[in-house]
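During the reporting period, we have paired protein sequences with backbone structure tokens. One record among many follows, to show the layout:
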Amino acid sequence: MHCLARALRRVSGPVRGWGQQRLQRLGSGQCPPRGAGAWGWGVGLGLALGVKVAAGCEQEGAPRREAAGEVKPPPPRGFARAIESSRDLLQRIKDEVGAPGIVIGVSVDGKEVWSEGLGYADVENRVICKPETIMRIASISKCLTMMAVAKLWEEGKLDLDAPVQKYVPEFPEKEYEGEKVTITTRLLVSHLSGIRHYEKDITKVKEQKEKANKALKLMQDVKKSNQEKELKEKEDKDTEINDFPKAKSEQDGEAKGRNLKPVKKTKEFEHEEYYLKEKFENVIDSLKIFKNDPLFFKPGSQFLYSTYGFTLLSAVVERVSGCKFTDYMLKMFHDLDMLATVLDDNESMIYNRARCYVCNKKGRLVNAPYVDNSYKWAGGGFLSSAGDLLKFGNALLYSYQVGQFKNNANKLLPGYLKPDTITTMWTPVPNTEASWDKDGKYAMGWVVVEKQQEYGFCRQQRHYISHTGGAVGASSVLLILPEELDSEVINSGLVTPPRGVVVNIICNMQSVSLNSTALKIAKEFDKDKLA
């Protein structure tokens, strides 16, 4: 009887964790406060659902019967610790920034091991987030578009190094400081085209880039200086100890200045072009927003993150594929079994779509303003679920690793992309950077952090690939942490790709930094996997 009371208390108490997932699927609203009323409600619901109590006590996360009779399996025992610690971390982040709702999905070696919603998909109507909740994925859309570009490239239909005018003559030829320059697809996918982002003031952009370049150069000089000192080994140890804090202080000061940019970028959402309400019938029409604007930099010379560069890229995909960009992408989603991934179309009825939120000047949560994202499908115009993005990440990871499993070549299906294509796509490109991950470089549609360790028994930098997103009323991250494959294990034939951890987090409020959180969670699951 005591165990029954405990089980019913969990049902009747505040919704959290795995219990939250169960209640949200039953369509329950907010739980009443604890007390006599709560007990009566909890007993009634417990009897109605047929809460099952084992001989001992029902364990946390044990399967419970859904309204439709479906029984969801409990969390994998091997990852119970990782799930608990990651849920606590995610709840802390949610509380810290005041986000209405967050949905997370984690897969290990291609199998989804955790998906959960925290908070509300719709605050006004008390609709709770669940794994199936669909939200804006913002700039993760660029990764989806890059998949389409890579597919057309490896099929021999797209020349990455041809001028974009070969495919989109509507985009005018460009000059920079009186010199005729060429913009190619390869430059577009790595943000090296010189095409502007939302900021129209070229002076402001150049000033910001100059400050960032100085900070980066200082960091590189400090690092080079330290390496030279170690190689020469002529400096006195005391001198090295005294010099290091000074160098570290300079480095931290400049890094701090660079890291403050994202905070200043809260003003980025003040740019009027974030809030365009015009509906564009096709991607060619949307080029009119920026096609006649001057280039901010010479193509190939400097990194300038540009969503409009991906709008031009969508026009390239449309012309090369021979069908509308949106149709081509939806067909690709179908092939990838991403059936919950759709266009962010305001008119369509999209089940499980969350509402979007922002904070007003008083810090109060309000509904995000109406926007039409048809001008940037490729760079930030898709909706998706945690589960679909896990499928996408694993399709990439499988394609990346399948070529290494040579002994299983006859048993394994080919990846959606060839291994060499993924390797090229995930190779850091010179002259690029990543504002959300100082350890990374931009590659082709992704940020890549390479494996590195400078000192023994010190920080080990793992190889991982990620992309974040920020849109009106939305934040997101997709991170892939590949397993460091051992040749002996590969040749044993006992394991198959994909091998590694994929983490996706989507949130229905803007300006929420999620990349470092995703990396911490990925490492937690990787630790449990190896245990």
About this structure: The longest strand covers residues 111-122. The domain at 83-198+265-530 is CATH 3.40.710.10 (Beta-lactamase). The mean pLDDT is 82.
